[in-house]
Design goal:
The complex is a heterodimer.
Chain A: E1 10-23, E2 26-39, E3 43-47, H1 54-61, E4 70-73, E5 76-79, E6 82-83, H2 89-95, E7 100-103, H3 107-110, H4 117-129, H5 133-146, H6 163-175, E8 181-185, H7 193-210, E9 213-218, H8 221-227, E10 230-235, E11 238-244, H9 245-250, H10 255-263, E12 311-312, E13 318-319
Parallel strand pairs in A: 3-9, 3-10, 7-8, 8-9
Antiparallel strand pairs in A: 1-2, 1-4, 1-5, 5-6, 10-11, 11-13, 12-13
Helix pairs in contact in A: 4-5, 4-6, 5-6, 6-7
Chain B: E1 4-17, E2 20-33, E3 37-41, H1 48-55, E4 63-68, E5 71-72, H2 78-84, E6 88-91, H3 105-115, H4 122-135, H5 152-164, E7 170-174, H6 182-199, E8 202-207, H7 210-216, E9 219-224, E10 227-233, H8 234-239, H9 244-251, E11 301-304, E12 307-309
Parallel strand pairs in B: 3-8, 3-9, 6-7, 7-8
Antiparallel strand pairs in B: 1-2, 1-4, 4-5, 9-10, 10-12, 11-12
Helix pairs in contact in B: 3-4, 3-5, 4-5, 5-6
Classes of the chains: A alpha/beta, B alpha/beta.
Chain lengths: 336, 317
């Protein structure tokens, strides 16, 4: 995540990712020139609203974007030393689940209803570690206990578990082979707050234990503040602001990040009026030529109609916005 | 005496299931002052939506009294209820499934007006629809579009316009912003607030999102397994939560701020089954303060003006 990356131990090195979906109604530009670098052991929060391209970015890392209609173009995609762009399907299958794995948003649909949870965890262990089914089953029971489910429940089917428990099973599957990079796509959105707190606590502990790098996809800035080291804010298929938690939360520079924060109800001051971002989410079928946020941006002028380049304002803090350099530019973050 | 638009006394809704009786709402009582908002908070399955719907008699309560605007509506017949229901409306959670996909925006908004025979001629109806659209901030050019062409925020505006069409005094908002993105959520919350001032509306605001309810409500009632466990003015509840469940719930909200890390209370286990519940405190099995006194159901008692708690062990917490 920094300019001087030469010697850093990167788990993910992604340059100029473009994903578009060619549909009958037109071309949908889902991800547009995204760069991302993650150091080993770090957790990055990928934040944005519906349609920002967060999940599409994650799916392209696993090479799971459906083709057709999806077209993925990328200059460089290296995950844990594997060049993901020039690789056979067979090798890819070895990497998925072992080097990189993903926790999907909805635990209710991510599990196979006709297999026991023990079998589903053991499947991934057997495939990747070349052990017998019996050994894999034993390890599956250990994994279940690790995520806080009694081992004797390994023989039960997903419908016998509650939502929070199912999400724990999904986490157990994702972590079964100790992946170097874990992508969690809104892992707690379908859960209640108290269960969410349990799951986040579990993820934090497991990450410390295994030194797993994490991409946490979420729309909740509160979760990012709790789990992540770095933040990348996405809008219109690209990262508009990125940096450490301190950079983005306390030295916000991008107008969209400003808008996101000001839209949130303030828990300490209930009288404060919310300041929504004006206008609607952008239509990825109809992208403006310049900054994707310019139609909704209170600071936009004619310079924003040109494509925005990424600029570093400090070692760690980068934005795609030309407005912050103008004299008199001032982000209006409400006191919280 | 306060001008109460709604008074609910000992409301119960039980469902008979194969495995036994499910006590979805169990002995819930509260009042709502005119022009105010009561937030109903709790996790999935705690009975908040069932409470909201029982008040409107969209599902028939098993027992209890509902006094709306001076009328004892639990005694009314179905046809009498139809008249009263003009004054009490519901905004649904999911703007994607609550609108008929084959009707245009104007037809959707006109539907309640025509069904209740409020206007006679088509031009009158159209005029009213246009007025409602401008009230909720829908552009006139959307008059003939279909819901699938619109985003979630605009669809929720249609739902709000439909609720407002009857000029109600009271609206139950059932998770009105849960399906929306944060920037759109703020637009809808501001709209609901403006409408409340403009039309003197009273709301019951059902949600699982505590930061939203704090922003929106005058009073908050926290529900757990069919019962209200704590009820207080919003500021008081957030500043001084007393029930162990409320404390855990408040501490579980992720706050988008850096710096002081709060002490987090993690509740063990999961919500217990609402079927054939034993006569003990509903939170007994998950509560870290549980003791022998909790083996009977604690009553909801006033501990300071306006602040009610149902917990037997307050002194030992």
């Amino acid at each position: 995540m920094s300019q001087t990356e030469t010697t850093k131990d990167l788990v993910l090195d992604l340059e100029n990712l473009n994903v578009r979906f060619e549909t009958e109604d037109g071309i949908c530009y889902a991800v547009n020139g995204l760069d991302m670098k993650i150091e080993r052991g770090k957790a990055i929060g990928l934040v944005g609203e519906t349609g920002a391209g967060k999940t599409t970015t994650a799916l392209s890392l696993l090479r799971l974007v459906p083709d057709p209609p999806g077209v993925v173009e990328c200059d460089k995609m290296v995950i844990n030393g594997h060049d993901m762009l020039n690789i056979s399907i067979k090798e890819l299958e070895k990497i998925r689940g072992k080097d990189i794995s993903m926790i999907f948003q909805d635990p209710m649909t991510a599990l196979n209803p006709v297999f026991t949870v023990g079998d589903q965890i053991a499947e991934s262990i057997m495939l990747h570690e070349g052990v017998s089914m019996a050994d894999a089953q034993r390890k599956a029971i250990d994994m279940l206990e690790l995520v806080g489910i009694p081992g004797e429940r390994a023989g039960e089917y997903p419908h016998e578990f509650s939502g929070g428990m199912k999400q724990r099973v999904v986490i157990a599957i994702a972590l079964a082979c100790h992946p170097q990079l874990l992508i969690a796509d809104e892992p707690t959105t379908a859960l209640d707050v108290t269960i969410q707190a349990q799951v986040l606590d579990l993820m934090r502990n497991l990450r410390q234990q295994y030194q797993t790098s994490l991409i946490m996809i979420t729309h909740d800035l509160g979760i990012v503040a709790e789990v992540c080291d770095d933040v990348a804010v996405m809008y219109g298929g690209n990262i508009v602001e990125e940096g450490t938690l301190e950079d983005v939360f306390n030295h916000t520079l991008h107008p969209y990040t400003e808008g996101l924060f000001n839209s949130l109800p303030n828990i300490n001051d209930r009288k404060a009026k919310l300041t929504p971002i004006r206008g609607l989410m952008l239509d990825p079928m109809d992208m403006p030529p310049g900054c994707p946020f310019s139609p909704r941006c209170p600071y936009a002028d004619e310079k924003c109609d040109e494509p925005q380049v990424k600029k570093y304002v400090s070692e760690t803090h980068a934005i795609r916005c030309c407005a912050y350099e103008r004299p008199g530019f001032h982000i209006d973050r409400k006191e919280r | 005496m306060a001008d109460n638009i709604l008074e609910v006394k000992n409301l119960k809704k039980y469902f008979k299931t194969k495995r036994g009786v499910l006590q979805a709402v169990d002995d819930v009582s509260f009042t709502l002052e005119r022009g105010k908002t009561l937030g109903l908070v709790g996790e999935s399955g705690c009975g908040k939506s069932t409470t909201g719907r029982s008040i409107l008699r969209l599902i028939e309560p098993t027992a209890g009294e509902i006094i709306f605007d001076g009328k004892e509506i639990h005694k009314l017949s179905k046809s009498q209820m139809r008249h009263v229901r003009k004054d009490m409306q519901l905004i649904f959670q999911d703007p994607y499934s609550s609108l008929d996909p084959r009707k245009t925006v104007s037809q959707l908004i006109a539907e309640p007006i025509i069904a209740n025979k409020l206007m006679k001629t088509k031009s009158e109806v159209d005029l009213r629809v246009a007025e409602l659209m401008s009230t909720v901030g829908l552009a006139p050019r959307l008059f003939n579009t279909y819901p699938h062409e619109l985003d979630g925020g605009r669809r929720q505006r249609i739902g709000i316009a439909r609720a407002l069409a009857m000029r109600p005094q009271f609206i139950v908002c059932d998770e009105p912003v849960s399906a929306l993105d944060v920037s759109i959520q703020a637009q809808i919350l501001n709209l609901l607030k403006e409408l409340q001032e403009q039309f003197e509306l009273s709301y019951i605001f059902i949600t699982h999102d505590l930061s939203v309810v704090n922003h929106f409500s005058d009073d908050i009632a926290v529900m757990y397994l069919g019962k209200i466990v704590e009820k207080a003015p919003s500021e008081e509840l957030f500043a001084n939560p007393l029930h162990p469940y409320t404390k855990a719930l408040l501490s579980a909200i992720p706050i988008p701020e850096l710096g002081e890390k709060r002490e987090r209370i993690i509740i063990k286990g999961e919500i217990t089954s609402p079927i054939n519940m034993p006569d003990e405190c509903r939170f007994y099995k998950r509560c870290s303060y549980a003791c022998d006194r909790c083996k009977s159901i604690p009553p909801l008692e006033e501990v300071s003006p306006g602040h009610f708690v149902a917990c037997s062990c307050l002194d030992s917490i």
